[in-house]
Specification:
single chain, 5-stranded parallel β-sheet, mainly beta
């Protein structure tokens, strides 16, 4: 009898440990499954089984905190219900076949630190609502079909370390307010239709390591202030309409001799350590 009671207790512990994910969060996952042809995913979900067993879903303390479905043949659009996954810290849907616009409900994912939607077919404007995701450290939207301007609202993401918006159809100018992203390490806007001058304010990004602006329609001079960015090790400016020039600058006590060379063919910065 004691053994039977012990087995029953374990059974109820097991059942209730898998039953505490909120119905709203589970329904959001099912909505994603249905709107992206889940039955044809490379690694699909058995909807009759516990969500704890579903591929790419990470659950902590009965909360869905990560959703990683990259390379999984998702086809379709993101449902509005995605905004009900309010405990998500990481969302990676890269390398799929998603289309349509990003739902405005994505602004509800206030715990997100990483949003990776690259290599899909999203269209329309980049939602300004993304600027409300204050904890975001990585935003990767490259290789989609986004149009319109870079939302100034993104410059409110002061925890951002990576902003990768390359290979879209973005127009307008580079917002000078990007300078407010003081923790930014990587900025890539390659292969868009951005015009105007390169904002000198980008030189305020003292932690910047990579600046990739190639294949746009940028004009004017390359700001010599970039030479003060001591952590910058990669800068790509080719295939723009920048002025031809050659500048050699050496500071008073330079740890580096930096030469900034701009021409119509390469538009690169060469950095030589002394």
């Amino acid at each position: 009898m004691k053994t039977l009671n012990y087995t029953i207790v374990l059974f109820f512990i097991s059942v209730f440990s898998f039953a505490n994910v909120s119905q709203k969060e589970k329904a959001a996952l099912i909505a994603l499954y249905n709107s992206t042809n889940g039955a044809q995913w490379n690694s699909t979900w058995d909807l009759k089984s516990s969500e704890y067993t579903w591929y790419g879903v990470k659950i902590e303390d009965n909360k869905i905190v990560e959703l990683s479905l990259q390379f999984n043949n998702l086809q379709g659009t993101l449902p509005e219900a995605i905004g009900d996954l309010v405990n998500l810290r990481k969302l990676n849907l890269g390398f799929n076949k998603l289309s349509g616009t990003l739902p405005s409900s994505i602004k509800n994912l206030q715990e997100l630190t990483s949003l990776e939607l690259f290599m899909n077919g999203f269209v329309g404007n980049i939602p300004s609502e993304l600027g409300e995701l204050k904890n975001l450290e990585s935003l990767k939207l490259y290789s989609n079909k986004f149009t319109g301007q870079i939302p100034v609202a993104l410059t409110r993401l002061t925890n951002l370390k990576e902003l990768l918006l390359g290979s879209n159809f973005l127009t307008g100018t580079i917002p000078s307010q990007i300078a407010s992203l003081s923790q930014l390490h990587k900025l890539s806007l390659i292969d868009n239709k951005l015009g105007g001058q390169i904002p000198v304010e980008l030189a305020q990004l003292k932690d910047l390591e990579e600046l990739i602006l190639s294949k746009n329609q940028l004009t004017g001079d390359v700001p010599t202030e970039f030479l003060s960015l001591t952590k910058l090790n990669t800068i790509m400016l080719s295939d723009n309409k920048l002025n031809e020039d050659y500048i050699s600058i050496s500071g008073k006590n330079p740890p580096k001799l930096m030469q900034l060379q701009v021409d119509s063919a390469t538009a690169t910065m060469d950095i030589e350590k002394e």
